[in-house]
Amino acid sequence: MTVLVITGTGTEVGKTVTTAAVAAAAVAAGRSVAVLKPAQTGVLPGEAGDAEEVARLAGAVTAVELARYPEPLAPATAARRAGLAPVRPEQVAEAAAELATEHDLVLVEGAGGLLVRFDDEGGTLADAARLLGASVLVVASAGLGTLNTTELTARELGVRGLDLLGVVVGSWPNDPDLASRCNLGDLPVVAGAPLLGALPEGVGRVPVGDFRVGAVGWLAPRLGGTWDAAAFTSAHVRP
After folding, report:
1. Is the pLDDT of residue 62 over 70?
2. Any catalytic annotation for residue 15?
């Protein structure tokens, strides 16, 4: 696994902290890591974007951003309104492939969900993953509604012939409700792929040293960690 594409079931589900955790676990294992953010929206020049946030949390990571648009909109819309050139899937694939020649692992973090458009021709992160032949990690929310969005994302990946590596809960509540606890057992069923981690709520705000140490415990071995899905689910799901 040289290139891993990380998408979400929507916005604000924890893609960036999940990307940072995967990066931190890889760095801890001695691997060289790059994170690629194809289109950063809603961030002004001089402000830190998602790739920089991953590097802040994970440590020695190469952070690359292909384009930045000031308004917090879908990349295609943000590019059009700013009068700037859009990012196209071919550019994303080319940049990721180049980074892969110099790094053990390249993480490509999308914007929003899988089918958010990069350009007016309809290019998406899914198209970039297809060009790269890369597996996709889906970051999902914990609570009510996540089963539908996760299954829709998984089905679209299947239709496109893309490999779904697994699902990570991007923000596991400090006080999980009934829906969140039940979803632990249902998410791998609707996704048709394993649950590969759960990041504690608010973990992006902890000291970076604590984040780097903790990352291994939030992710399953497939992502370089020690997290046990069966044990975690059993501890939270009640009859």
Report:
1. yes
2. no
